[in-house]
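Researcher: Go.
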Amino acid sequence: MAIYAIGDVQGCYDSLQYLLDQIDFSPEKDHLWFAGDLVNRGKKSLKTLRFIKSLGDSATVVLGNHDITLLAMYYGVFRANSSLKKILKAKESDELIDWLRTRKILHIDESLGFCMAHAGISPVWTLEEARQHASEIETALRADNIKEWLSHVYGNKPRRWSNDLQSWERDRYILNSFTRMRYVDRKDAALNFKLNNSPVYKSKLKKRNKKVPWYHWNKRKDIPLRIVFGHWSSLGYYHDEHVIALDTGCVWSGQLTAVRLDEKIITAISQPCSNRV
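Model: Structure:
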C-alpha cells in the first residue's frame, strides 16, 4: 500500500490522470490525500469532482478556498462563474455538493506522522487547538443553516486570533487560516491577504521584511506532525522538516505534484499540466 499527497488539482482532470499513471496508483491498494482546491479555473472541474468522489475510501480530501466558494455558489451566496456552472447544472449536483460539504478541513494521521490542511495551520495554534477549530468549521458546513453561515464567513477580518472571538468572527478567522493563509505579520502573526508572491529567503531581506510565511513565524506553536498544504502556487514545491508545500501551479501552466508519505525519503513526482486557464 502506498500513500500519496497531491497538490491543488483545480479541475485539471487530465493532468491528474497522467500523474496517477506515473505513480501507478491502484484504488484497491493505495490511498490519496488531496490538499484541497479540487475545482475551479481548470477546464474539467465536474469530471475531477466526479472522479475523486468515486474513489471512496481510497481518497482523503481537505477543503480549499475554491471548494468553499463552490459551496457558496450552490447555495446562492455568490453568482456561479463559468468554470463551475457545469457542476451546478449536473444531474447529480446535489449529491456532489453533499459529498463535498462533508469533507474535512484538517486531516491528521499521527501514526504516519503527517497532517494536512489546504493553506496550513495557524502558527498560534497547537495541534489539539487546530483539531478543535477544524471540527467547528466541519460542523458548520454540515449544518442545516449552511447558507446563512456561508453568507457571513467571507471577509478578511479579524486578522488576529483570540480565544474570545465568537460567532461569525471566530469562524471567519478559523476558515481563513485553514484555507487562505500565506503570510503573517512578523510581530503578532496577524493574517496578511495582500501578499501572495514567493517568499524571499535571503537573510538580509528576511530581517527587514515585516511579513513572513506562516510556517516561519518565530513563535509558531510546536506541531509534532509534518504539515502538508497547498494553496501557494508562487511558493511552489517546498519542504523542510516541518512542512511540505504541494501547489505547483498546474492550472497556471505549471505542474501537478504528488509526494509519497509512507517512505522515509520524501520525493516529489510531478506531471506538467495539460490544461490552460
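Model: The chain has a mean pLDDT of 94.
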